[in-house]
Amino acid sequence: MLRKKSIPKEIKSQSFLQGAFILAASMIIVKTFGMVYKIILANMFGGVGTGLFNAAYALYNPLFMLATAGFPIAISRMVSESVANGRYKDVKKIHRVSVPIFIVTGCVCFLLMIGGSFIYVNLIKTPNAIFAILALAPTVLFGCLMSIYRGYFEGMRNMVPTAISEIIEATFKLFVGLTMAYLTIKFGTNQYETTGYVLGMKCSSLEQATDYIMPIAVGAAITGISLGGIMGFVFLYIRYRKNGDGITQEDLANSPRPRSDRETIKILVRTAIPVGMGAILLSITDVIDTSIVQSRIYDIMQTNPEALLNVYGTLLPDSVYYAGTTHTYLFGCYGYSSTLTMLITALTQVFGSSALPSVTAAWASKDKAKLKQSLEAVLRITLVVTIPSGIGLSVLSEPILGLIYSSPNVSNEVEIASKVLTTMGIAIIFVGTATPICSMLQAVGRVDLPVKLMAIGVAVKIITNYVLVGIPEINIQGAPIGTFVCYLFISVVGVFFLCRHTKIVPNFMSILVKPLLASLVCGVGAFVSYHLFNYFMSGKIATILAVIVAIIVYIFCLFIFKAIQKEDVLQMPKGKKIARFLERKGVF
Description:
Blueprint: H1 9-12, H2 16-68, H3 71-84, H4 88-123, H5 130-155, H6 160-195, E1 197-198, E2 201-202, H7 206-243, H8 249-253, H9 261-303, H10 305-312, H11 318-323, H12 326-364, H13 368-395, H14 397-404, H15 411-443, H16 449-469, H17 478-502, H18 508-533, H19 539-560, H20 566-570, H21 575-584
Antiparallel strand pairs: 1-2
């Protein structure tokens, strides 16, 4: 019979919400740096450069997912389950056997990215993306190596190392990447002004010189990302070697005999494969999506360009039209909206990462009351974030994009992207919700379900995008519709199976209806206040004030509708003090 050990203090101190707050705090820093990075680059590069940047990431994402193949989640789940059952020797063994697996897969996928880049750029008809892809390739290897330690620490319910490593990555990405991009563009323009040539190519204008140097500048910007990945891994490795993981020699001495290496690898692979297949599927979809969206727009420009020109008129620059890069330009505009939506999905991924060990521990201990509390807390907090964020982005799409991308050089891109963001704002509610739902399915042992749901959702998305983007009147606006349909299916059906498998039915009034009502009031407040302020002041100030008003209204409504419960507050850092204060105010 297994002897159940108490969890080491360092691990036990982080509940779901405490872990989520740690990761969320780092995420805010990381995504703020990331937004500044992408906004400055977008203002610097314009639509074409942004398209090259996004094209590189579309290839990187599936290869990175292939390299990790669900192993970080599998490690996190296995470590959390082993800790809950007092099997600390197994915890150590899980880490030891995972290292060589990650090294091999990371190296293979690094080489695949380099070799496949030449085929990929021809497929998407964007040969200039090759520099960005090659600069990004090392991130596959070092991101893979970081995943070993992140999954391990997260399974121990210690989110601090992950948070710090992400901040290190973002810091190098922002400062090194922007510096290198700026210096590259400055070098090219100086060379043109001095000699009339750029990289040996004769240029007739500064605009043409900028076009020649742009692919190199995008690659230089991405070099900062690769350096960030290297330094993030170095930190995690030193942190693990120096400080360990909180497991004492006494814990190990009282732990039962560990599984064999063979059995550990078997469980690891069996858990990782379905998880990894789902992640790979979604990432491959990004590549297919990129290819379909750009190819369909390219086909329109070959067969019926007048129809597309009638839609956008002067919003399509002549230089883009005559250079034959309309498909890349519009895809770059689509990327402008993604900068904002990625912030929301990143936050809900934090909830998923923090929920996995928490729900796994409750499931492993067969504590149904704790499991119900954990499931409801994850769903409620996720929807409290995603619903108002999505509605807010939808109703204030153009003002928010105009505030962020303030350069007059990208005003056309902003106008096109705002129409995309209006639809994407609603879609992001379900995109953000799907990740924690899939994490909870994995936590309760149904690692097979997410990949099945994703396969169906992705198929629907591909068909929807192919049909809608190919219609000139819809074109790029069809992409967010496909995203909406895909993740609506995954979220709704995922919750159904989660309830059926756990035999727990969440309180939907608490987790869904109340946040939705508060969010609708928030959306109305944002819309009305923006148009009211816009009569008396500049659009940028009106946007900032409208967002502040919306946040205040939303927080007020959350407590009016009792969408936040005392149990949620108690799990927060300093939760007891906050709960006592709110009790004195009559909130609870």
